[in-house]
Amino acid sequence: MADTAIFDVDGTLVDTNYQHALAWYRSFLRFDIVLPIWRIHRSIGMGGDQLVPSLTSDDVENRHGDALREAWTEEFEPMIDEVHPFDGAHDLLVEVKRRGFQVVLASSGKSEHVEHFLDLVDARGLADAWTSSDDVEASKPAPDLVQTALERVPGSSGVMIGDSPWDAIAAARAEVPTIAVRTRRLLTRGTAGRRRRARVRQPPRPDRRPRRHSPRAPGLTAAAASPADLRHTHAGGGHA
Q1: Looking at beta carbons, which pairs linking 72-79 to residues 24 or more positions away fall under 8 Å?
Q2: Closest CA to 25 of 45, 64, 55
Q3: What CATH number should be reported for the domain holding residue 172?
């Protein structure tokens, strides 16, 4: 049974996805690389070490990768004061802690940005630990961040809470189940159909013994609509 909740930060607790996409779009333009911004948006959640070659090529990564990531920082940081937490983000962390989970924040972002967002969500007194891309060799969708997050606390198992496919892929590679927070809509016809057919299961509390019919690994098979809805899901509500 999971005793540790591993939270993604950008796009899950704080509303940054569009600022990230715009910053990447502008950084690529500096090198005369024009990418459809919807493609960039779909890649948000990856760390910069993964995003650049994924959107372009290994050749672009080898020639311009470090410079592109530096340009991204220069483009993103002037927008950071425009970022706000999602409604209910702080209350969600409070409720998860109240239910007995340890809370670890695991972000593909830079450490100084994670520190800023910790204060924005007022999470320093709630999080047992946090980690960023600066702490690992490879960011999401590699499993390193999820594994490092679990190593930061004495818990035995975890559940990932995130908004992007890259959160779920990283967690799966670390053999950790995922609760998806639908703060952005990246659904194709196929995924939309699967979501409609999916059934939500309430994850058991770590301080209670599961009933006989409870799943061995806690998690949701469908996405919650927002951090606030995720809070309601923990309280017993579901979304089909």
Answers
A1: 72/23, 72/24, 72/27, 72/48, 73/110, 74/27, 75/22, 75/23, 75/24, 75/26, 75/27, 76/19, 76/20, 76/23, 76/113, 79/19, 79/22, 79/23
A2: 55
A3: 3.40.50.1000
pLDDT tens-digit series, residues 120-135? 999 999 999 999 989 9
Q: Is residue 215 part of a domain?
A: yes
Which domain-ending residue is among 51, 82, 113? 82
One domain, residues 59 and 126: no
Q: Which domain holds residue 30?
A: 17-82
What per-residue confidence (pLDDT) applies to 219? 35
Number of helices (H), then strands (E), belonging to the chain: the values are 10, 5
Portion of the chain with pLDDT greater than 90, in percent = 72
Q: Which residues pair with 224 in a beta bridge?
A: 181
Token digits of residue 233: 């899901």
Q: For 110-139, give the DSSP string.
A: -HHHHHHHHHHHT-TTT-SEEE-GGGSSS-
pLDDT in tens, 40-68: 999 999 999 999 999 999 999 999 999 99
Residue 156 confidence (pLDDT): 73
